Amino acid sequence: MAQQISEVIVRYAETDAQGVVHHATYPVWFEEGRSDFLRKIGVPYSDWEQQGYFVVVVDLNTRYLAPAFYEDRLQVVTRLERIKKRLMEFSYQVFNQHQQLLAQGSTRHLIVDADKQPCALNGEFYQQLCSKLEQQQEAGND
Amino acid sequence: MAQQISEVIVRYAETDAQGVVHHATYPVWFEEGRSDFLRKIGVPYSDWEQQGYFVVVVDLNTRYLAPAFYEDRLQVVTRLERIKKRLMEFSYQVFNQHQQLLAQGSTRHLIVDADKQPCALNGEFYQQLCSKLEQQQEAGND
Amino acid sequence: MAQQISEVIVRYAETDAQGVVHHATYPVWFEEGRSDFLRKIGVPYSDWEQQGYFVVVVDLNTRYLAPAFYEDRLQVVTRLERIKKRLMEFSYQVFNQHQQLLAQGSTRHLIVDADKQPCALNGEFYQQLCSKLEQQQEAGND
Amino acid sequence: MAQQISEVIVRYAETDAQGVVHHATYPVWFEEGRSDFLRKIGVPYSDWEQQGYFVVVVDLNTRYLAPAFYEDRLQVVTRLERIKKRLMEFSYQVFNQHQQLLAQGSTRHLIVDADKQPCALNGEFYQQLCSKLEQQQEAGND
To answer: For the whole model, what pTM was predicted?
Structure first.
């Protein structure tokens, strides 16, 4: 499926007393990877919420392989692994400027409505999403 | 006016690569001082939002005197300096377990409604707030 | 193995625009659960770093079952699942004030030295750790 | 003095339950403004720490004028207001994509050594800093 490469420069506030990036920062970068991914295919997550769809994280897995440091220039590679009307799965890889793999992870998401109840994307929105994904893939970005 | 002393144990995630607490953590502790203050006088901020009043920060000042470290046991002293129907002012002092003053600050807040428009607390809620404050002060907590 | 129950009151800064706690906050609470656990058995993590041992996260898994809200009073139950000279495993459960399970997770950690190289705890420190754990368990806290 | 314009896209994790960016996020953006500023003139802050100079925040002031929202594309304008061998002052303005001023602030910093004791930049490093600043200004970036 399609993928998105996001650039991140490590912020000082993201480091901890070990002198490296705190591990709870990676889920935030993963989320920015997803945000970039959805903006890139033309359905920014802001639009989802305006349409009454909220995407919630139900599963997070991260494996940490090597530390990131302040001012490192990272690439977050985000892949959409699966999309259904009620759920989505993404995977992530974080590389530093030396092409070293620092971390990899995955998230699973449910679609809920404004009352936090599970729901399905309506047909029109789901079709739009799928067709934008296809265009993106045809454009060679996978 | 009344004051509230909140206990905080420094979290590892709150430190940065200098080995000390990152300066952007202090406004978060100030906010917890305010939350504790309002809970203590019996009008928790959750109730404000349920009544349609949102308190937004319009001014923040912090002076940093000495660093805090992981596992330090801090006291955040929160004082309500001023309350009107449309605004509030608080001041804060942060001490460590050696009674050393680490930081002091102040915040100014406006009351806004659900549409983020400035508004005044209604008479009933404002009276309740003032009378709870008085009870608190009579109880010797100032 | 031994367990530790930590109390957390949800901070406003920990919420996001969905009105619930942001998912990247849970690893921070897990870490505080570990910190409490180690303080409780008498070997606070500050001591580890002073002795030259740094514990790094190599694996994080979290399953999110229900949202947490501002001012919720949570219990983070931390269990030490495994300890060796070179690695540790913990598991976590987060409950709200209604005894509802909100999230569960686990972390795996390696011991590294000041140069971030994997190392083993020395015999004395490891024995101290194990004997403190035993005392704790005999004291009925498991 | 010289200024730097940094682009920031608002992260979901930076929002809070009011649906807007949490106020403690702005000092983090200011810090990124400073980081960009120093990278731009060729003396990235990583180099400072490698040379044994640590810049600590001693004063932070922020005035909040209007809220920022998830996915807003912001410009953080950072100006160096003053530089001495022992202290620095910066000011900041944050604009959104509609050229609306959301916040303005300032920070004051002391230079400390690895033991957190106040110190002065050595002559060579200070001269390098000043000459890079001049080049930058001559290049029309102020």
So the answer is: 0.95
